[in-house]
Amino acid sequence: MKEPERGKEILYLTRQEVIDIGLTKKDILELVRAALTEHGNKRCEMPAKIGIHPLRDTLMHAMPAWVPARHACGIKWAECFPDNYEKYGLPQTSGLMVLNSPETGWPICILDAIWVTAKRTPAVTALACESLARKDTAVVGIAGAGVQGREHVLVLPEVLPKLKKIKLYDKFPEVTRKLIADLQPEVSSVELVEVRGFEELVRGSLVVVTGTAILMTPDPQIRDEWVEPGAFLAPVDFDSLWEWATFSRADKFLVDSLDEMKYFMTVGYLPHGLPPLHAEIGEVVAGLKPGRERDDELIIDMNIGMGVEDVVVGREIYRRAVERGAGTILPL
Ligand SMILES: NC(=O)c1ccc[n+]([C@@H]2O[C@H](COP(=O)([O-])OP(=O)(O)OC[C@H]3O[C@@H](n4cnc5c(N)ncnc54)[C@H](O)[C@@H]3O)[C@@H](O)[C@H]2O)c1
């Protein structure tokens, strides 16, 4: 047990220390389920992000959140610079989280947030699949074989019991091949297959996840007619790859936070706006609004990521770190 002294110290956790805490896929799914349930029931405080945008298609966002039921409050400062990989060999998504004491307000922990972002985002997709994907989904398509592509490959088999095949497409074929070489042994019940383009990816897939790059002006490379009846589409990169025709004909269109979407529109993203909203995903996870009701419904859940997910997962990492004396205590 190693707790920072109130008002005098903070705990600092590096990325490796965050990973070494060892939250499992099931832990993360349950933490994210709790966060979404609180959000759905509006038992949390989470103003929409504010941010700065130093280069085109880049963002740095402040994501504060308070989830009383989990005693979790703090802020993630999250960045996305899509050209990082090509220019600097760095991941496009980075971030730091500050957790605060809800009693004193003082900061208690700073942790690297890359791992939390990497894990909680596909956990939201997975929980959405439970209610929104067809139960007989055997084939999934994933666009983008980067961090999000990898993490979705690891978690989707947990929630799709009939899953047999995941098709993968990335603009860099070697990235897809490396993903398959690295992860096929871990997901031995599901065949990972490289495909050569979006048409092959989307046709025949009852769940399609896109995790490529968030673009202010979409580059809709996925044609509406390729989308299967009854498909569940889960873009974590906004409308970047999708035709408006697909969005506008969805039987149910969901987002994680309407406030967040409205904010992004003020900055110039989502130029078509949004189709009529069925629900926020937390409302479905909380059982307040229906999920899939018919096999042939086209359902889209477009999530941008929420601070409530981050602080709930972050708080549990902090609790375990204190319990086992992990990390470095630093003076304030
Ligand atoms: N919604 C959320 O909560 C959330 C959280 C984290 C990341 N994201 C978003 O998810 C996306 C992926 O993030 P990441 O951290 O996995 O990035 P990453 O750089 O690790 O992976 C992105 C992959 O997509 C590929 N790609 C880019 N454009 C492509 C295109 N047009 N066609 C095919 N492949 C393409 C790249 O080659 C790369 O391998 C980003 O848009 C990011 O902003 C969303």
Question: Can you walk me through this structure?
Answer:
The protein has 332 residues and is of the alpha/beta class. It has helices at 15-20, 25-40, 84-88, 114-132, 147-159, 173-183, 198-202, 244-248, 258-267, 281-285, 307-324, and strands at residues 9-13, 50-52, 59-67, 72-80, 93-100, 107-112, 139-143, 165-169, 191-194, 207-210, 232-235, 252-255, 279-280, 299-302, 328-331. Helix content is 34%, strand content 23%.
The hetero compounds bound to this protein are: nicotinamide-adenine-dinucleotide
CATH topology of the largest domain: Rossmann fold
- Identify the CATH architecture of the largest domain: 3-Layer(aba) Sandwich
- SSE pattern: EHHEEEHEEHEHEHEHEEHEHEHEHE
Number of domains: 2
Low-confidence parts: none
Largest sheet: 8 strands, parallel
Number of helices: 11
Which homologous superfamily in CATH is the superfamily of the largest domain?
A: NAD(P)-binding Rossmann-like Domain
Q: Tell me the name of the CATH class of the largest domain.
A: Alpha Beta
Mean pLDDT: 97
Number of extended strands: 15
Radius of gyration: 19 Å
Percent helix among the residues? 25-40%
Adjacency order of strands in the biggest sheet: 9-8-7-10-11-14-12-13
Give the strand content.
Answer: 15-25%
Distance between the termini: 20 Å
Shape estimate: globular
Structural class based on helices, strands and sheet pairing: alpha/beta
